[in-house]
Amino acid sequence: MNHRTAEARARARAVVRGSAARGTAARRPPRPRRTRRWAPAAACALLAGLVLADRVAVGAAEGRMADRIAARQSALVAAPDVSIDGFPFLWNAAAGSYPEVEVDGRAKTEDGLPVTASFDLREVSRTAGGYAAAQARAEFKVPLDALAAKRGPGVRLTGHDGRLQITRSVMGVPLVVTAALGLSGGTVTLEPTEASLAGRPLNPANPQIAAALKAAERKIPDLPLGLVPSGISVDAGAVTVHGEAKNVTLPGA
Questions:
Q1: 29, 148, 149 from 145: Cα distances, Å
Q2: Nearest to residue 116, comparing CAs of 77, 145, 87?
Q3: Using CA of residue 103, residue 105, residue 111, residue 113, what is the dihedral sign?
Q4: DSSP state of 226
Q5: Could you say which of 89, 94, 126, 222 would form a disulfide bridge with 58 (CB–CB 3.0 to 4.6 Å)?
Q6: Cα separations in angstroms, 70 against 15, 59, 97, 143
Q7: Do residues 243 and 223 make contact, with C-beta atoms less than 8 angstroms apart?
């Protein structure tokens, strides 16, 4: 082998090694940038922090509203549960308006009847004297056993197919009268639809039955927030008075 041939082979081997090295370098994956990896995590952490702050703020506002309602409503037996809907709360609070506010509480009437009240306030907005709701609906539930106790011993009230069933003992035998509930000028009315004595059918239009049910009619007390009675219903455990109103004022809420 002469000198020129050796030099040529050496140059060829160098070229091959250089090409292999460049190919190996080209196949190496690029190193990920840490900024790209941390940016989504930071955004998620910021979003979670904002949501947490929003939920803490709404919880505090609900607690303040519950305390104020309890201070103004002496019939309540405990602070009500308040739920302010709408997200984000802080945005709504800054604007002074909330799409919906729900209030649930327990109270007693002047004659000692327990009542469970549920309010649904829509489009609540801040006013100079407190807050106002464009629309308000409410339900006031009174347990049937509490109503029966007011009627005296031996009286049992149950709800059946949306009607009130009254059972009492007459000379040791059961008298059962079923009546449809209604509203007339804010008074709860009772219209007999069925009756039986000791299991034998009676004419529900019997004057004595009609007179007894007439005596049992009661006027609904004034509802809070200016609500007007809009209906009455009965289920297996309670009688419910429904009320509604528009442009309701919530002073100092």
A1: 77, 5, 6
A2: 77
A3: positive
A4: G
A5: 89
A6: 90, 17, 22, 22
A7: yes
